[in-house]
Structures are given as C-alpha cells and as structure tokens.
Automatic annotation (TrEMBL):
Top-level taxon of origin: Bacteria
Protein name as catalogued: FAD-dependent oxidoreductase
Cofactor: FAD
Residue stretches making up the FAD/NAD(P)-binding domain: 101-404
Coiled coil start-end: none
Annotated InterPro entries: FAD-oxidoreductase/Apoptosis, FAD/NAD-bd_sf, FAD/NAD-binding_dom, FAD/NAD-linked_Rdtase_dimer_sf, Reductase_C
Residue ranges of every copy of the Reductase C-terminal domain listed in the record: 427-494
Keyword annotations: FAD, Flavoprotein, Oxidoreductase
One Pfam family hit: Reductase_C
Amino acid sequence: MPEDEPVRISVDNNRCHIYGICQQEAPEVFRISEGGSLHYTRSVPAEFAAQARQAVRCCPMQAVSIRGGAGPGGAGGSGIGERRPARPLRSGAAARAGRRRIAVAGGGLAGLSAATRLRERGFDGELVIVGEEPYLPYSRPPLSKQYLAGELAEEQLLFRADEGLDAHWLLDTRVTGLDVHGSALELRGGERLPFDGLVIATGVDAKRLPEAPLFSDRVRTIRTLRDAAAVQRAMHTARAHHVVILGGGFIGCELACTARDHGMDVTLVVHSAPLLRRVLGGQVGAVVGAIQRRAGVDVRLGTEITDWQDHGDTLRLRLSDGQRLDCDFVVLGLGSSPRTEWLRGSGLDVGDGVLCGPTCHAVDEWGRTMPHIVAAGDVARWPNPRFDARPRRVEHLIHAVEMGQHAADALLRGPARAARFAPVPRFWSEQHGTRIQAAGIPALGKDVEVVEGTLRSERFVARYTRPTPYGPQVVAAVAFDMPLELLPYRDQIGHSLPRRTPRRRR
Ligand SMILES: Cc1cc2nc3c(=O)[nH]c(=O)nc-3n(C[C@H](O)[C@H](O)[C@H](O)COP(=O)(O)OP(=O)(O)OC[C@H]3O[C@@H](n4cnc5c(N)ncnc54)[C@H](O)[C@@H]3O)c2cc1C
Ligand code: SF4
C-alpha cells in the first residue's frame, strides 16, 4: 500500500545478522556491501516508505525500527507505536451490538500479519486472536539459530508490530472446532466464539517418528519456543557432547551448525542423498553437504535409524547400514504436518493443510468457496497462478507475512472482487557462515544452471527451470553468498525464457 509520508528507520547492529532480507524487500533503502555490512537510508522518502515497512515486518531478527508515516493504527501511527487500550471481550457482544467481529485462529506471524492488514484497511470492528501458545507472536527462525546459541533472549523474539492493533488476544487458548454454517469457533472448555469473518492461521507442527521413544527427554523436535528451550537445556548440560540430528532439511542443517559452533559432536542422519535434495536439488544440495562436512559434521546419507535404546545416560541408536551410534540426545528435523486436527468434521477440505482457492478463501470438501473464511501461512494450501493450478503449501517467514496480508484483503473484498495471490516465495538460510537466499520453488525445477559464480567456489547463483510448451519456465533462483546478484533472477520467476534456437546453416 503506497504511503504519503516519509519515515525514519534505524537498525540495531547487535541484532542484525546480515541475512539481507531487508535488501530484497526494499533495495532502494537497504544495501549489503561487498564486505558484508548493512548500509541503509535513515530518512526514507514517502515513495519507498511502504517497502521499508514491509522490510521491517520480514526481518526475522526484528532488528529494524521504523518511525513516522501511517502505521496500522492509522495516520501518525508508527507500526510499532503506542497500543490503544483493548476493550474487554464478551462472547457475542460485538455481534449483539451490530458491530462486526473477525476472529483469527492461530497467534503466529500469519495471524498477526492478517490482523495488522485488517486494521490498515480500516476494519474497525472487533478483532479476536486465539493462540494456543502462552506468548504473543514471535519469530521462529532464530529458534534453531541465535536463540539456541544463547545470543537472543525469549523477549527479543517477539514481533513488535502487534502494538497499536487494538485486538483481543486469547492466549493459551486452543481452538477445538469450527462450525462453518453457524460461523463460530469452538474453544477449549466449550466456549463458542461467533464471528463474521475468520482467518485460519494455525501453522504446522514438527513431524514425529512413531518408532522413536515418545516420552524420552532425549528425543526432541523444534517448532515452538518451548521446544527450543528444551533443546537449549539439553545442549548446555555439562555432560552433553554428542547430538544426532535426524533429517536433512534446512532446520536439521541449521541445528547442526549451531550445535557444532557450541563445540558438540554432530551426526546428521539423512534418509536421502545428498543433503537438501528435496528442497534445492542434488547439485546444490551437495554444496551444502561439503560445507557441513568441512565444519566437522559427520554426515550419514542414505541411512535411517532402525533401533532406539534409552540406556539412562546415553541413547543407543542402530542405523539401517548396521552402524551403531551412542549420543546424548536426538533432534528430529523431519518436516511438518499442518495443524488442522481442530478442523476435522468441519466440512473444509483439510487434506495436507487448508485448501484455498487462488484468492486465499477456504474451500470445502464439495469444492465450494467459503466467502467468510480465509487461510494464511504454513497451514494454507493454494494454487499459485505464477506456477500452475496445483495447490501447495509454502513454509517461509516472508510468505506468512504476505499471505496474511493478502488473506485479510480478500476477506474484506469477498471472493468475487479479491485478487489472486501470486507471490514469489522467498527464504534464506545460513550454513556455517555461507548465506543462502532463495526465491521461487526450487523443487519444481527440472534443470539447474549456474548463472553467476561457480559451485566450486561456493559463491554462485543457480537458476532452476522446467520445460513448458512455451519454453523453459524459470521456477526458482538460489544464491550462495551473492544476495545482490540474485535480484534480477528473482524477477524472472514464473516467466518463460526464450527457447534456444539452433543456428541456421548457411
Ligand atoms: C526452527 C524454525 C526455523 C525456521 N527458519 C526459517 C528460516 O530460516 N527462514 C524462513 O523463511 N522460515 C523459517 N521458518 C519457518 C517460519 O517460521 C514459518 O514459516 C512461520 O512461522 C509461519 O507462520 P504461521 O503464522 O503460518 O505459523 P506459526 O508461526 O506456526 O503460528 C501458528 C500458531 O497457531 C497456533 N495454533 C495451532 N493450532 C492451534 C489451535 N487449534 N488453536 C489455537 N492456536 C493454534 C500455534 O501454536 C502457533 O502459535 C522456521 C521455522 C522453525 C520452526
Ligand atoms: S533483514 Fe537481515 S540484514 Fe536486514 S536488518 Fe534484518 S537481520 Fe539485518
């Protein structure tokens, strides 16, 4: 949304980790130098204020502050300005008084982003955000990185953007059901929360392994602050020196980095080969494998754990290749399952997440669009017209911000007038000091071409394409330590490249 007043920004250098997301969101305002330091314009003209504000929302370290301009509270608000006093919530009160109520199920980033956008768009009815965790929304990426390493405290993870929102927060409260036709949420304890509009943003949970000892303190997952605190305690126990990480996705690889930096022996056990193959493809995944090995991580590919024995002070694991591993604890990094258990029986289509149409409106089991229900963030599965008609989920922080915003717009406009949601998904990671930035969906790529730098130098941009009748379509670009060079390739995503025509013989 364009803004008509300049804003002032400042960056807390102690928090900034040079991920470069701000540069991707607002290249006119932020720039990372060749030497790897962040430069930015303190006084941002009105024409770039909206970009700067989006960069603030997408910074996982909450390192950027913004002042001035029109924030969520309206003119004069800062986006992180004063909180207006919240009115006490009485179930059904808004509906009786003829005011409208929008409920948000899930108190994470996507829910926060939707709520903020509703206020920005002038929604002045009642906003009720129901979250199962006892905390206000917080940034999850540092859970496997700076929080685990003890560099960030709990309160530093909280998103500051909820201030000025004038919402009722029902924290520590689980939503247990949805009555679609009666337009009401069912809360733990039996209370009903009627609504006029609903945003579903309940995210995902970390996958568990049925054969792993379910109640052992030595087997952990990492999705919530509480999970991360438990892993942090396990890591900092004086005796703990060996951790096994099961799963070769980004979270597993990042955990390996943090534990290694902490001086632990780390074994990464991965069913497939190479690392990150499903996300980045074999060639680029192999570069991550080389980086991990060089940092001293014991990477075991193409194997899995077949036997678990808790021997009191150690956990003994047997691998499918016959090897035995003794360790202090195991962290599972096996992917995620959408939090839709509370929607079972509601009539919504919840096969692998909440199915949505292109506008983010939820769709029921009979294919009907629900005009008063939208979904956003990790839990939502929708067809991104930039790629094709197949509904997919995307689990990245920037996506939670953007889909929350779009879902809010769509809820206010209704399915007939709402725009289709066609973003370029973007994410980042850091592997032992190498900064990875990605745009698009690399897993859709059939061909990978290194378009800048070289794989060997571990500084490169790789472009992912897939064949279509109109020529190769660019589906993703991934940069290793080349954030600026990524930008032009990011802009190609979803477009077809000209077909290479064979040279004519004279
Ligand atoms: C360890 C870790 C590292 C990550 N690193 C990166 C990274 O480097 N880059 C990146 O782009 N992304 C990363 N992510 C992903 C990113 O954090 C998510 O995409 C983002 O948090 C999704 O936001 P969300 O609001 O959709 O879901 P969530 O943040 O999961 O919020 C959903 C909320 O809803 C609550 N909830 C669920 N069910 C109910 C219910 N029935 N009733 C009430 N409340 C409920 C949950 O408890 C949760 O608080 C990481 C995630 C994790 C866990
Ligand atoms: S996005 Fe990254 S580079 Fe930008 S301020 Fe945040 S941590 Fe620093």
